[in-house]
Design a protein that fits this description.
alpha/beta, Rossmann fold, globular, 228 residues, 8 strands, single chain, 3-stranded antiparallel sheet, 5-stranded parallel sheet, 48% helix, binds cytidine-5'-monophosphate
């Protein structure tokens, strides 16, 4: 029997640097990348497009089951996301997009509908999976798991700088409130709450640069023999 395709999971709360680290890791290893948050974000956005309320659980689950989503890479290297052929890359990355994702992600039937889609991405030579429940639910048997975290203030400040750079008008106190609200919802929901897997390596990036966190991650990756 062939050995299973390796998966490295990167979980943690919003703004902890998971996206950046996962991208860098997938590129370095030449592995596939699963941005599971994008699936929840597209589901939330699809509801807006279809005129379905995020609180209408059965209609939202129906949308998730039949989600027509396509990912592609632009010449600039940017990841483009389309719903039914419509480019939603920008819309899903707004604060409202994050709020919708977090709301629909709390619905167990939505998580169930997206589970298989995520597992299908476990393809050779390997997968880096970025999310909240990659190590605890979706890829429970992954040989290497990380849980990245940082203080709420640090995460809000990073997000603030990103949004300002994109030209969005945001206020830091409002962002802090949003992140705290989203953290509470993600941690307290019954279906796949945000918690580190028992065998995850927890990295607090509050006082570290991206380069330092990546070096720490690569140290563990090399120890497992994945970077040859
Ligand atoms: O990672 P990202 O910020 O794009 O995720 C948006 C939201 O989607 C999160 O706040 C969380 O509620 C939800 N999510 C989830 N499980 C995942 C990935 C994201 O519940 N694996």
């Amino acid at each position: 029997m062939l050995p299973p395709v390796p998966v490295i999971t990167v979980d943690g709360p919003s703004g902890a640097g998971k996206g950046t680290i996962s991208h860098m890791l997938a590129e370095r290893l030449g592995w596939h990348l699963l941005d599971s948050g994008a699936l929840y974000r597209v589901t939330g956005q699809a509801c807006v497009i279809e005129g379905v309320s995020w609180d209408d659980y059965s209609a939202v689950a129906q949308i998730a089951r039949h989600l027509e989503v396509a990912f592609s890479t632009a010449k600039s290297g940017e990841i483009l996301v389309a719903y039914k052929g419509l480019d939603v890359s920008l819309a899903i990355r707004t604060e409202e997009g994050g709020r919708g994702a977090s709301k629909v992600a709390a619905i167990p039937a939505v998580r169930e509908a997206l589970l298989q889609r995520q597992r299908e991405l476990q393809r050779s030579p390997g997968l880096v999976a970025d999310g909240r429940d990659m190590g605890t639910v979706v890829f429970r048997n992954a040989p290497l798991k990380f849980f990245l975290t940082a203080s709420v203030l640090e995460r809000a400040s990073r997000r603030y700088a990103q949004l300002i750079a994109k030209g969005e008008s945001v206020s830091l106190p409002r962002l802090l409130e949003d992140i705290e609200e989203r953290d509470t919802r993600d941690r307290s929901r019954e279906a796949s709450p945000l918690v580190p897997a028992e065998d995850a390596i927890v990295i607090d990036s509050s006082a570290s640069s991206i380069a330092e966190v990546f070096e720490r991650v690569m140290h563990e990756v090399r120890n497992k023999g994945f970077d040859e």
